[in-house]
Specification:
alpha/beta, Membrane-bound Lytic Murein Transglycosylase D, Chain A, TIM Barrel, 3 domains, 8-stranded parallel sheet, globular
């Protein structure tokens, strides 16, 4: 009888141990937009712990609907995760009449909603197709009328989005090709320098001099890094992880910020047939995890899609930036970046203008800085913007602009200086722009891509814009 009793007790012990093992784990169903990093953080685990429990290897790519085992440390039961309360929905609806140049994302930002919800509310199958005069149902009350902008008298589009926590506040920098004019940059109150890195398989140490020279001159350094698009196609996952490992090396070397790729929505930089925001976010996810693992203080900035309406939507061979941003948002980009990359260098009107560009496509948002800011902010309302290229082109003192840039032929050097200062005023006062990088400081190339026409250090060594920027930054 005693042996039977012992056997019964042993069975109870085994059953209880088995229950403890089961209780020590949870199952998580991957939702759209989630990454392994965001899931691990939700349960208080590390990426490595969750990856090991599920037999995942780098670059830790997961998909919607995957079942993941969430381990608990020490065999204790993981705390049950309570579903987050649903966000409050605005009561009632009103109407909005579509104006020329508006997109669904721009309209959504005015009413505190998003592109997807507005399309659902109005039964819109293709969010890229709107008609001037179309009547939309929008949530809540109409936005308050906007006051005229102080210099042009033109109304900005909708109320400014709410501020977000922005560690360190607004900072100014410049993209330097030779980094030959740190004195001019300091006079302009720049504290950052942006340097471009093109990676072809070198070790991170090959570019350490860019970090060291920036720090040695008293600047923080943003490295904008792009690899060889031809290496992506055959084995994207393998390339993403190799690229992420390289970026981690730059972070360990002291890079203060890393922009992960550049203008990835066009086939100049991403393989045709594979262009999508979702594919890019897989790269961004691998990069973010690697960079933060190497240096948690390195700022991770998303690549900045080329602002364009050329593609009339998004497809595998290229996409406009508005729908590409939507793809990024749906794929969970907000979880794997600190800052949203933005490029604005098609300036032919003052930085507070929202209409009136002297071109045939004057209704497109990309000619206007306020509309660009509103659009990008609407996709990622919880993230600051990092404008990693902002410039005004002028051929004054250099020569006639090439045909593809004739739109800027009326810009003067005085306008370049005044508009850059105005852009600083607008972005600095927004409460949600973390960093503005002037494109550019010191280019000398003049050809089919007139880079020197954007440079603030002009032939002869003067820098009229440096003085106006210093005043805009508070002297």
């Amino acid at each position: 009888m005693r042996s039977l009793a012992y056997a019964f007790i042993a069975l109870l012990v085994l059953l209880s141990l088995g229950s403890a093992v089961v209780m020590a784990q949870q199952v998580h169903i991957v939702q759209r937009g989630e990454t392994l990093f965001s899931i691990a953080r939700q349960y208080g685990r590390t990426v490595a712990e969750v990856a090991q429990a599920n037999g995942l290897s780098e670059p830790y790519i997961i998909h919607f609907g995957n079942q993941l085992t969430i381990p608990a440390p020490g065999g204790a039961q993981a705390p049950a995760q309570q579903p987050a309360p649903a966000p409050a929905q605005p009561t009632g609806t009103t109407t909005h009449i579509v104006q020329r140049g508006e997109s669904l994302a721009i309209i959504a930002a005015q009413y505190g909603t998003n592109y997807i919800e507005l399309a659902r509310l109005n039964g819109i199958a293709d969010p890229d197709v709107l008609r001037v005069g179309q009547v939309l149902q929008v949530p809540g009350a109409p936005p308050p009328p906007a006051a005229p902008a102080p210099e042009t008298g033109q109304a900005p589009i909708g109320p400014a989005p709410p501020s977000t926590a922005n560690t360190g506040g607004f900072e100014l920098g410049g993209q330097a090709l030779s980094f030959a004019h740190p004195g001019h940059m300091k006079n302009a109150r720049m504290t950052w320098v942006k340097r471009q890195v093109k990676w072809h398989g070198e070790g991170a140490g090959h570019f350490q001099h860019l970090i060291d020279s920036a720090h040695g001159n008293g600047f923080k350094v943003l490295l904008s890094v792009i690899g060889d698009k031809n290496q992506i196609g055959g084995n994207p996952g393998g390339f993403y992880q190799n690229f992420a490992n390289f970026l981690a090396g730059l972070a360990r070397g002291g890079a203060d910020a890393i922009e992960v790729w550049n203008e990835m929505n066009i086939d100049r930089e991403w393989p045709a047939g594979q262009i999508s925001g979702a594919n890019y976010v897989q790269m961004l996810s691998a990069a973010y995890n690697a960079i933060k693992g190497a240096n948690s203080s390195t700022l991770v900035i998303s690549g900045a899609p080329a602002p364009t309406g050329f593609f009339q939507g998004c497809g595998p061979n290229g996409g406009d930036d508005d729908c590409y941003l939507q793809q990024m948002a749906s794929a969970g980009a907000a979880n794997v970046m600190d800052c949203v990359g933005v490029h604005y260098n098609a300036g032919i009107v003052p930085p507070d203008a929202t209409s009136g560009a002297p071109v045939g496509s004057s209704g497109h948002y990309s000619w206007y800085l306020p509309r660009m800011m509103t659009l990008y902010r609407s996709f990622f309302p919880g993230k600051p913007l990092c404008i990693t290229e902002l410039g005004y082109l002028t051929g004054e003192g250099i020569g006639a602009l090439p045909g593809g840039f004739a739109w800027a032929s009326g810009n003067t050097l005085a306008e370049q200086a005044a508009w850059l200062a105005g852009a600083v005023h607008r972005t600095r006062g927004s409460g949600y722009v973390r960093l503005l990088i002037v494109w550019n400081v010191d280019a000398t190339y003049w050809g089919s891509d007139p880079q020197s026409g954007y440079a603030i250090v002009r032939p002869g060594g003067g820098c009229p814009a440096c003085d106006s920027l210093r005043v805009a930054m508070g002297g």
